[in-house]
Amino acid sequence: MRELLILVKRHMCIYFADKGNIIFTCLSSIIVVMLYAFFIFDTQVDSLVAAMADTDRTEAVTFVCTWFLAGQITLIIFGATFNAMAIFIDDMKYNGSDVQIFPLSKVKIIVSYCIQAVLIALLFGIGSLIIGTLLILCQQGYLIPASSLFAAVGVIILGTIFSAILAMFIVTFMKTAKSFSSVQIVLNTLMGFLIGMYIPIGTLPDFMQKIIFWNPYMSMSVWLRELLASEEFQQLFAKAPSLQQDQLAVFYGLRAESFDTLWSTSDLALFIASITVIIFAFLLVSFAKKRYTR
């Protein structure tokens, strides 16, 4: 255990020694927020006000802010875990000689990189949750319930574990940092749409919705939206019939639906956990077939 902790500390030190990693992770998040605020935010608020009679614009603004915050946290978790895994590629460039001086099995070496990615993603994910909550409080005077915030931290923890294992699995197929960077850029570009972050998931064609709802990152963002935006959603659509509320919740990505069945939070948790276990099993098989020698 001591060797594992030392190895995790070593990975963390390497990551934070490169200030560019931290700067660009934060900068990319800021750019996404600014682009959304300038080009999409007002349009989405206006459409809500126009669609619902007697809608308070302040409530619509608060709902859109909390709705966007959930998607932004999911995107940050994805980006942070993949950025953290760049250390693995750099190590393998030298056949992992620095890592193999530790008397650890391959499984523990994998776990050390995953723990490092989880800790880094938790830092950015929980930091984004806190900053976003404070900004909404200052701008709109709305404080997300403490119970929802604590539950959101739990979702972030589960999500970072899944994302770290997925990132580790993908980088085992990458031979150079350049190829990994290219894959990451493509995935980052797509992920905003695959989690319904920029526009409501209900605006996409039906076949795309059915595919996207099986994306674990989408499940993560749905769970976070349900926690962070559900109170404002209920106030905004309080006059709508219960059946229409369920349809609107699916439309805005506060609920996941497949085979005409709404998923509960336990369903989302089980789905994410199951995919995590499956990918980790594939990761062990993939890593076992590779030979890293000094």
From TrEMBL:
Superkingdom of the organism of origin: Bacteria
The species this protein was found in: Listeria booriae
PANTHER family per UniProt: NODULATION PROTEIN J
Keyword Ion transport in annotation: no
Swiss-Prot/TrEMBL keywords: Membrane, Transmembrane, Transmembrane helix
Name this protein carries in UniProt: ABC-2 type transporter transmembrane domain-containing protein
Keyword Transmembrane included in the entry's annotation: yes
Compartment(s): Membrane
GO cellular component, one term: membrane
